[in-house]
Amino acid sequence: MEKFSKFRDGATGVAPFLPVKHTQAPSALSKVVLAPLAVVSWPLLVVYFFAYFLLFQWIPFVSTWYLQFILKSLRLLYINFSYEGEKRVSARRCQQLRAKPGDVIISNFVSPLDAIVFAARQPTTFVFPTTDGQFATAGVLAAASQALSSQAFSAKGKDISSIASKAKSQGTVIVLFVEGTASNGRGLLTLKDVNVTQFNEAKSPLNVFPAAVRYTPGTAASPLPQTSMGYLWRLLNESWWYMCSVRVGSEPLRGEGITAESMTRAICTVGRLRQLGDELDLEAKQEFLKAYKEKR
Ligand SMILES: *[C@@H]1O[C@H](CO)[C@@H](O)[C@H](O)[C@H]1NC(C)=O
Ligand SMILES: *[C@@H]1O[C@H](CO)[C@@H](O)[C@H](O)[C@H]1NC(C)=O
Ligand SMILES: *[C@@H]1O[C@H](CO)[C@@H](O)[C@H](O)[C@H]1NC(C)=O
Known about the structure:
- Keywords: Acyltransferase, Lipid metabolism, Membrane, Transferase, Transmembrane, Transmembrane helix.
- With about 300 residues, the chain is α/β, with parallel strands linked by helices.
- The protein has one domain.
- It has ten helices and nine strands.
- It has a seven-stranded mixed beta sheet, with helices on both faces.
- A hairpin with a 5-residue loop joins strand 3 and strand 4.
- Helix 1 packs antiparallel against helix 2 and helix 2 packs antiparallel against helix 4.
- It is globular and about 60 Å long.
- The mean pLDDT is about 95.
- One 2-acetamido-2-deoxy-beta-D-glucopyranose binds next to helix 1 and helix 8.
């Protein structure tokens, strides 16, 4: 019997918590060069992140530029931000399509890079569902760390309307990582913890745009918990380059039309992701990790 069949979705065959393996063996050149290169770039990146934490995050405009620089240093060489139904997007059209302050982007969650990719585009407030039916906000570094954790995001929750009105006044968009924990990017975990009532009852209706993130090679995903230093090392040691595609829906979900099902469907459609069963949630991930540790 397959080892982790319990954690594989019955309908689609997707096992969302298994780490992504390289499809090709590393070339001789990358075996020789990548590790020494990682030894050099790893401490530099640690310094870059500290500089962001201590200084650059506080400087408007410079902070997004600086995150783009960090992404390049992480070898994320190309980010394809595309909008559903739009082919070649001019700079002007791009401005029109871009989410406005207070808008909510709901996205899948694959890796610590996700948060950096969104925040490098425009000022962003990150939000995670809490287990008690509220929503908790996070800065970019906290949101990135959450991708390496197997626990629910722990912070005091608020309701989504008050988060949205604050975001609007601060000029940030909201990126809500609806799954709450990272998967390997092959499907969308259940959105059990997202309290949709708060979206339906929001005083001023929220514009909710679906989005989905995908990486090439897929090994950038972090379905297993890891330390941030360990992840950074793995990222640098394993590939010469990474690419990211972010697809965003052009039609927002609004008001009563927002249900867990409509959110799930919209994200899966925009990202061509498989919709996974209800049993594959945060608790299932924790069980999986226990089994994974024992059986390996
Ligand atoms: C960017 O993504 C869009 C939509 O997925 C795709 O049509 C386009 O070819 C991609 N562009 C590049 C340069 O990969
Ligand atoms: C969802 O939020 C509403 C309003 O804050 C609250 O009354 C309700 O208990 C929450 N639902 C769940 C399932 O926690
Ligand atoms: C670095 O990657 C290579 C494969 O390219 C692997 O054999 C090696 O064990 C990795 N080193 C560390 C320290 O993770």
